[in-house]
Write the structure tokens for this entry.
Amino acid sequence: MRPISSSLSIGFSKHGAPESSLALQRTLLSSRRDAVTVRFRLSPVNPADINQIQGTYPILPKLQPNLLQNDSETPFAICGNEGVAEIISVGENVDTSGKDWIKVGSRVVMKSTGAGTWSQYAVMDPSNLIPMNHTGVSDLTAATIMVNPCTAYRMLRDFEDLKPGDTVIQNGANSAVGQAVIQIAKSRNLKTINIIRGTTATTPRNSTTKSATPSPPRPDLDALKSRLTALGADMVVTEEELRADRSIQQHLKSSSTIKLGLNCVGGKSAASIARWLQPGASLVTYGGMSKQPVEIPTSLLIFNDLKVKGFWMTRWNELAASKAELEVEREAMIRELCRLSAAGLLATPDCEIVDVAGDGPDSLEIVKRAVDVAMRGGSGKKQVFRFL
Amino acid sequence: MRPISSSLSIGFSKHGAPESSLALQRTLLSSRRDAVTVRFRLSPVNPADINQIQGTYPILPKLQPNLLQNDSETPFAICGNEGVAEIISVGENVDTSGKDWIKVGSRVVMKSTGAGTWSQYAVMDPSNLIPMNHTGVSDLTAATIMVNPCTAYRMLRDFEDLKPGDTVIQNGANSAVGQAVIQIAKSRNLKTINIIRGTTATTPRNSTTKSATPSPPRPDLDALKSRLTALGADMVVTEEELRADRSIQQHLKSSSTIKLGLNCVGGKSAASIARWLQPGASLVTYGGMSKQPVEIPTSLLIFNDLKVKGFWMTRWNELAASKAELEVEREAMIRELCRLSAAGLLATPDCEIVDVAGDGPDSLEIVKRAVDVAMRGGSGKKQVFRFL
């Protein structure tokens, strides 16, 4: 097999709106003796990818000269943080001792942020890869397991010592992380109270403008409730029901103590979760879909000893890179998530595979459309690139 | 000396506005063989006392029949949580072994909330008392040391491991706790950045109505800055300066890392502190003067690992009651605060002594006026009852 010397990559030369910033370029692939070359099989679009293009994410991909372009002065950054790949060549100086998975054909996922997964190929240090050779785990599952399910798994583990029968309350329960929370909690015999919007959003998820008019009722509310219940949700209520429905409030008051709240909405929605938490509980924020700051009633902090924290999978991964005990913990996490997935207890999100066939303008349009769909969040399907 | 059988007490029979609820009654004092009788020397008015009258505080004094009243069916609760007293008699069954301070004439302060200090006398279990026989500590200092200075002391100790040279940022820096923070921090070689309102409030501190019009400029701003600086503040800025003044922002950016934020205001003021904290720092809320929920930008929680917590001295005292190591910690705290006070390094707040001479309507008017002054916070002086 002739060594591969270039890769088709989705990226940008300047931060801005994806619509105008995104580009498709062929980039140089310099194989290294101490690295492996991988071919990406599937590369999902996550909100962080979009924020990186916009330049608003705290970690940004590196802009560097693309020597394959005529205009090599203009730097180019390759997008994409999550993905599943296979090893297609192993450098002769790579130390494979004790790591028999470092071989051609092995399926791998990315250990940390910034791998540049929106690309056909990449040359990578094997220490940045995690083997994903578990049986019964599809490529789509492998491609989408390292961000959302891992976030859900860690939040259910790292903040409160939850015992079977304990309850977790979360907003944005229909998000990818929210659905993973429901399923992982179920597998641990934890109860979940799940809050969803009862109205449709009138602004795109990534828009910074705020809607001044109330949103219309969500047409698929009953179907959504049924779907989350089928995943294992013990209770699914809308924000409005939680605020106004006495019988729901009474049920929450009489239900077992609620030790953990998970917030991906912010604003008053965070406060409305916080109110149901038992004294000393944790409210963990991992997203901010409303674009409003997290609001916490002062009395809950002072008198209820509420602890308000945040979770970022990227930081956990950085920590794990320097702590042996967390590496062990990560292996256990991936093993458990793969076990749940293979057993049908952790559903892979609905995905739309977006084929990228070349670097022509038609392909770029397809890429931009997929990113736009991901930004609007309207299709309900996760956009996943596949390079042909 | 004839045993004392009744006490003049400030209290209420029904929760409500202090103006209408407060009453002065003679209450029965039943001495007990296993308790001591104390005479209160000074009894400060704190915000918690007012909230207890209003019925909005999470711990409320007990309403019980007052057998000395003609209408003994109507229950009465004695107000007051903080105060300095002296032991005037010791029950014959009180175990004084190893506690030679349990004797007539000893000066004591209250260990926990709910002692009913707005009274001439009280019969108390000695386990609820703390000896306060340190030299060079005035009655006024002793009367006001267990709430505000202790709150400041604990917040500077229990959340972050602060080393000399580390920086603390706080809002409401002119509050009693804020001033104690400045002085205790100074004694530990910690730097403080102190945020004050640059405008005067137009609503009483305990009002729940919000002001719709902007407040007028604070006339005493320069004097206030000088006073806090004289206490040891490294920097004193207004909310407005912090938001708009580039040179102040530049200074904060270049100053040493800020590990701890203290918030007694809430709303956007909490957010504006949170922004200056280093990653992983703690923002501790102990008050909510603005009556607005604490606002925290989502990104600080997720990307900066900000920890948002609350502090309540009452909870700490409850914890300490059941943990021997915290009792030791409390003794060290009181010793240190008394040392600072005696050395002139921890100023006693400006106080106005309010004499209560009898149970007539004139006396009640004097009591109500003092509570009103405390609610409005306008005089700048702490109101302290003294029963004649």
